[in-house]
């Protein structure tokens, strides 16, 4: 696979990953809503000019993976709640915090793999022109993120 194709898959994974964590009604520790029924799918539809058939295919891909994601979202939310309880308990337990963090990291890794799988499947639904457009959009997004990080670092660096 060409580097450009790999970058496009990663780009779509980033776009989809951004929304999937909050896509479910219980969407992990931060809640969420029907993200793909709304803003994310709308964004992809607008930017990539997805057809109705493509939208339906992507919705089906997400729906197929939803049963595998739901228990992971629940575990992620539970781990987050456990960590918050530990923080608020008044007595910090380093070992317990490490155990909770390790469990949450494992769940997060499983979710990332599912996100990548969904993104890869959704990427296959796109036309060649849509894949090119996605690569351009993601390149611009990456530039903005890098610029923002540089500005943030400069703001954090004391004047000498």
What's a concise summary of this model?
With 160 residues, the chain is an all-alpha fold. It has helices spanning 3-20, 39-48, 52-88, 94-125, 128-156.
How is this fold's topology laid out?
Elements: H1 3-20, H2 39-48, H3 52-88, H4 94-125, H5 128-156
Helix pairs in contact: 1-4, 1-5, 3-4
Structure characterization notes:
79% of the residues lie in helices and 0% in strands. The protein has five helices and no strands. Helix 1 (3-20) packs across helix 4, helix 1 (3-20) crosses helix 5 (128-156) and helix 3 runs antiparallel to helix 4 (94-125). It is mainly α. The model is unreliable at 14-37 (pLDDT under 50). The protein has helices at 3-20, 39-48, 52-88, 94-125, 128-156.
């Amino acid at each position: 696979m060409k580097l450009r194709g790999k970058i496009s898959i990663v780009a779509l994974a980033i776009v989809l990953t951004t929304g999937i964590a909050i896509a479910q009604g219980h969407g992990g520790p931060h809640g969420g809503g029907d993200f793909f029924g709304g803003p994310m799918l709308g964004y992809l539809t607008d930017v990539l000019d997805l057809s109705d058939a493509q939208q339906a295919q992507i919705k089906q891909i997400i729906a197929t993976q939803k049963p595998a994601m739901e228990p992971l979202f629940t575990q992620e939310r539970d781990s987050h709640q456990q960590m918050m309880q530990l923080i608020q308990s008044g007595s910090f337990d380093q070992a317990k915090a490490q155990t909770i963090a390790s469990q949450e990291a494992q769940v997060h890794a499983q979710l990332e793999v599912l996100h990548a799988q969904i993104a890869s499947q959704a990427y296959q639904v796109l036309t060649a022109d849509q894949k090119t457009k996605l690569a351009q959009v993601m390149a611009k997004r990456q530039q903005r993120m890098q610029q923002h990080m540089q500005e943030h670092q400069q703001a954090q660096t004391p004047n000498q």
